[in-house]
Amino acid sequence: MTRGWLVTGADGMLGREVVARLTARRTPLLAAGHAQLDIADRDDVQDALDRYRPAAVVNCAAWTDVDGAETHEREALAVNGHGPARLAEGCRGRGTVLLHVSTDYVFPGDGARPYTETDAPGPRTAYGRTKLAGEQAVLASLPGTGHVVRTAWLYGAGGRNFVRTMIRLEDTRVELQVVDDQRGQPTWTGDVADRLIALGSSALAGEAPPGVYHATAGGEATWNQLAREVFRLLGADPRRVRPCRTTGLARPAYSVLGHARWAVAGLPPPRHWRQALADAFPSLLAVERSARQAS
Q: Residue of 144, 209, 219, 258 with fewest CB within 10 Å of its CB?
């Protein structure tokens, strides 16, 4: 029997996209949300791996409350640090490929050029520290089959996110202010899911070396520029989105990641964020319109 894939965090925004695309490919898989698999629980992890014996595991499970991690770092570490460690321990010795999703927050966010896969991390937030702990555990336990895939600024139809919020606010606000002093790469979950599956398939074929990969979109933008592009796609006046500066809890000012390492896996670099957003937009708009009608 063909060994399938295990997707953790399958009920999250990215996890749902990975499951949908594996299903479309008719790939055997076990989709496990938190209720089915707590990755911080060693017994849960071992039981799932023993029962299903997957060829590849895609870890989309995470504590994603960035602000909440500042006051609940221990709880965030249990999911973001200890959880990947449990998965890596379980995959070790089984020949199982582990694809662990991480974040730009492992970097300090004060750069002036794209962070490469080999740049030294230096997180400045509790969330970043917990995610770095997960990365380190995977790479240490699985030097031959561990793949860390960093992404950032995610949006998709399967959850709450900035792009969907902008679609909603365009219909209710005459004007709004959006920060223009943070730069990053708006990234569609559909593109990340495709990239995870391509990387996993390449790794199973022995063609993708283990290590760190960056799965953000090409190009870069500020949140303000992204909001303006959403308005443009809606046929609204982008000038209704006014620039402002960041207040409150700090976010990385510069979160742009480089993509050089995809070449070693025989895969092309990610496409530009504007092209991806244009392709994703119909599904995002449909979800928001459906939600509006339901309310």
A: 144
Locus of tokens 């793949």 = 147
The residues, ordered by sequence, that sit 6+ positions from 70 with a Cβ below 8 Å of its Cβ are 125, 126, 127, 249
**pLDDT (tens digit per residue) in 224-237:** 999 999 999 999 99
Q: Which of the following is catalytic: 52, 105, 115, 127?
A: 127
Average pLDDT, the chain: 95
Say yes or no to pLDDT of 2 above 80.
Answer: no
127 classed as catalytic: yes
Nearest alpha carbon to residue 229 among 177, 277, 157: 277
The tens digit of pLDDT for each residue in 233-274 reads 999 999 999 999 987 666 789 999 999 999 999 999 999 999
CATH code: domain 5-160+185-218+257-271 is 3.40.50.720
Tens of pLDDT along 139-150? 999 999 999 999
CA angle 17, 23, 25 (to 5 degrees): 110
Q: Which residues contact 14 (CB under 8 A, 6 or more apart)?
A: 60, 101, 151, 154, 156, 158, 189, 192, 193
Rounded-to-5 percentages of helix, strand, coil across the chain: 45, 15, 40
Single-letter code of the amino acid located at 124 = R
> Which phi and psi angles does 13 have, rounded to 5°?
-60, -45
Q: What is the pTM of this model?
A: 0.96
Residues 6+ apart with CB under 8 A from 175: 240, 241, 242
HEC-encoded secondary structure of 107-122: CCCCCCCCECCCCCCC
Which residue bears the tokens 């979160």?
255
Indicate the domain borders of the chain.
Answer: 5-160+185-218+257-271
